[in-house]
User: Fold these one by one.
Assistant:
Number 1:
Amino acid sequence: MDEILEILQSNAKADPADIAHQLDIPVEKVCEAIAEYEKRGVIVKYKTIINKEILKNEDEEVTALIEVKVTPQKDKGFDSIAERIYRFPEVLSCYLLSGGYDLFVIVKGPDLRTVSSFVAEKLSPMENINGTVTHFLLKRYKDDGDILILQGKKDTRPLVSA
């Protein structure tokens, strides 16, 4: 991967002048490369990762990780089913997998009931869906390569033993 892309991937706020200085190339070349990457769709968007553990927001959304078994469609494979799924506004991500399940879907909603309703009323009844397993995200420790736990903060929850 291009060094400019590597820098932007680790820090979307990296200034073209700083990138140029790091790589010892003219700033104009960096700006042109970024503009070209954006135009070609290589850079899809710039993103901020928020550590919601710090915010302790009462209105925090619920995230579900859903494994989906699918019967692929003749001459279309998994693509058309995946497209029907990822078009739902609740769906953040949709991936084709190897292994016991075919698709991995990440869904977000305002509460547990809404996400459960999505799975029960929209996803599971879809044609060619043979089964789902839903996991609810309880805590994020690392997201998109970034550690989210506060350094030096101790976990004050009691230990649970089996």
Number 2:
Amino acid sequence: MDTRIKTVYGRQILDSRGNPTVEVECFLECGITARAGVPSGASTGSHEAVELRDGDKKRFFGKGVLNAVKNVNGPVAEKISGMDAVNQGEIDLAMISLDGTPNKANLGANAILAVSLAVARAAAIATGLPLFHYLGGANATRLPVPMMNILNGGVHANWQGADFQEYMIVPYGADNVRQSIEWGSEVYHALKSVLKAKGHSVGVGDEGGFAPEVSSNEEPIELIMQAITEVGLTPGKDIGIALDPASTEFFKDGRYLLRTENRELTSEEMVEYHAALAERYPYVVLEDGLAEDDWAGWKILNERLGAMIELVGDDLFVTNVRRIERGIKEDIANGVLIKLNQIGTLTETMAAVRMARLAGWGAMVSHRSGETVDSFIADMTVALDTGHLKTGAPARGERVEKYNQLMRIEEQLGDAASFAGKNAFARPVRSF
């Protein structure tokens, strides 16, 4: 079968927030066609690869991506046409070289990534393999624990609720991925009832989580704990808690400004704030507990909590091997959040996962707040055996499509499938 790329074709589509994003179709000489769409973040780190936007205020308030699409259909298509789709690394490197900048500012990471993913999917189809097996080989059989963001704050709730951006449930005590998703859905609906009973709003944020007005950053955890018990499950045994404060968003002039609680904290005080919560609740993961450039604070955080829970850097590392390497050398965390569009190619993303895993760190694959229905990251999580996948609440089509794909993969694997469960994390789940 001729797996050479005939051409690639890009178009502008809409993401889950109604903003433009890039979709690409890859056409192989053998007649196979595959498509991929890329997401967009709202809470973005300043060190991420460049998401190329048009800036024309007359169209989509400047958020159009026609220039990125033009780059796909022009220089990128010309560069990679004739290349073999199974040579993923060679194709990605060719696009990186064509761009010629350290952050993909010329062509746009959104343009490059859409091509990268479409090529991988086309190659998988051509070889007759499911995407997760094509990317991960025959031993890609372990399903991840879903990290479900069921209560939103910060920028995802338009700063109307908690300061912390994401409160996640982690159903690690389930027997398989299907049951873990079932538990997550039940807790989600129970939380809705709890919120209604307390007079809270049940409107949802970008990632499907509820966004109530609360009096503290701890109150959402208490509400979630109540929801867990109301469906007959046990916090710390069946379901754990994970937090993503997105601390960069409320870090100003060397202080962490907790608007909800009318407090200003130093890095050391913020560490103790997190430590107190981690000791009271069944935490397994704390993501972005401090700001993206607060390296000294992260060192203190890891010394205080690194032996207890998985400390994940998102804005801190932005899926970039150079920043991850620095983090490993300075021993400031023990986990990396993996977002394809932070770095811009599949090859670089896989290198980031590999570096983290070789260091004994966790690697948690993640969606973005502006998503498409593309389920690539579900297959990639299984392929790379990262053990946990963060892709929003069990609500909204663009979120549940990733969970649905995990269930399809589990079904396809049959008896060969296993579930990461309590072994998913960089640190053992504590008895609680």
Number 3:
Amino acid sequence: MEKSKNTLSRTDELIIESYKTTMEGLAAYYGEAFEIVLHDLTDLDHSIIKIVNGSHSGRKRGAPITDFALSMLEQIKKNNAPGSSAAYGGPFITYLSSSKYGKPVRSTTIVIFGEKKKPIGLLCINLYLDSPLVSLLRNFSLDAPAEYIAEHFINDSDELIARSLEKVKSEVLADGAVPVSQKNKEIVTLLYYQGIFKLKDAVQTVSRDLGISKNTVYLHIRALDEKT
């Protein structure tokens, strides 16, 4: 494969750039046993533009693409379209390999496509299987240092609206500092700042539950919009 001399469009640059934050989030979630690498395919000799936990392979920013990645890109070029994930020609592949020190590695290489549906980058996630078990399990322990946040995994937006409304109502109705005449307004305000009214039918559901008109809810929302 010839050395790439292409340059990225502004849109493609933004696509590649967006993966840098994704990498940080993945690294924080999975932990130090995972090496995460971002390749920019416009310069294959120095394709790595970001690497997290690079001490596993000794690579740094500016290192070249791997031989396997080159083969994968050649297959995509031949197929001229993303195919099955089980083959080189697919948009991603998960496989076992070895580090330069002969240690087992489980890897995933994901092709990043640009605005013209051509490969512009690669996101590679490598799990070094010789890592101490404690480093693999640390982030998945209840004792792991992470902020606890109550998050509900639900099936549709109606359930999300209902759950949020129920929670906010119970808080406001139990708060003696909020005058009775201001309870509904406070409920609408709290739901507003949670982003609930961005969901379809939220206004109708809230107005019906609180026994007030939709126009009243909209009036509160407009007043809050003017403050932000």
Number 4:
Amino acid sequence: MPLAIRERLSFTDEQCGEALLAFRRRFTDCECVLLNTCNRVELYVGSPSEIELPTTAELVAFVTGFHNESTLDFDPHFLKLESKPAIDHLFCVASSIDSMVLGETQIASQVNEAYARATRGGFAGPTMHAAFQHANQVAKRVTNETELHRRRISVPSVAVSEIASEFFERFDDKQIVVIGSGEMGVETLQYLKTAGATKITIVNRSTDKATAVAEKFAIKAMPWESLDSLLADADLVVSTTGAAQPIMTESRYRTIASARSKGTLLILDLAVPRDFESGIGRMPGVYLYSVDDLQAVCDRNRSFREQQLPKAQKIIREESDRLLGDWNHRSSGATIRALREQVEQMKQSELVRLLGKQVMATTTPEMHEEIVAAFDRLINKMLHSPLQSIREVAQTEQRDTLVSALRKLFQIR
């Protein structure tokens, strides 16, 4: 679904709750979970009973109507999946196989939060509980049994977890300067804090922006004019500005270098165009990495993640078959039990009639047992083939057809 379409159909947190309430009012007996992220709007609908679920047209009309949009503009962009394809999709989403960034970890928590919201409001029932709890288990299996999430593939994450970590055994005692308070700078700060960094200073041309970011991460903010003195005392510099020209020339840095009392300086230049002139990297004691250097690592790690896909997909197929098998067993089990109870009542009725006849008055207990056993053998032989067919059928639609036929033929309520 294109971004321009998703923007018009996306839900705020407050709207998610309102939409679930509206869905319940319109489709009283259906369960529902609404998943809304920056990349997807998905409505999961189900029911443990045999009620007729909403059609694709009804679901599209519900979503577009909630946003006061015309169905005609959006109908081609909706995709409807049922039964196993729907379960496969949910498991792929929860495991981040269907994400724009393969193996990203945020989607699992977003799926869990969507399910938790539906559960708190009473919109999730047995079907959604089974599907989403199983999806959480699948995501854990993919994490534990593959290396899909093990290698970083974003430039800031690679900069901290693979490049900087090779230079420094620890971060809590390092003086770190982050230049720029945009999206790249903020993401880098998240990884630095996770790695244990505490002595972080952020500088930005806009002091207000730097101060706002500093408050969020509990770090220091300094004015742009203090950049040279900060670099003179830094162990690690991460630069992420959007400047059109380098903010640090080779000649300017030579002056800074003469004032440095420390040895090695690691500079991670994540900016495009570059913030630090390339000649700085050839100076003694300076290790300068550009975004191209880091992108090469990202590409290598992305290729590694893609190699893990077959393992993850195999896990999803296994777990999808297991969940559907459980559902099939439970849904047909009630009908099978009802049929056996009905046949048992018929057997008992016939036995009472037969054994109550005068001619049977002289039969021995052994003969009585043999007659009962004969009835049981006959019933089991008659029921074995149809019941075995229901247990072994692979497709949900075929199973439902057989179960419905069984209920109709034997008038099972």
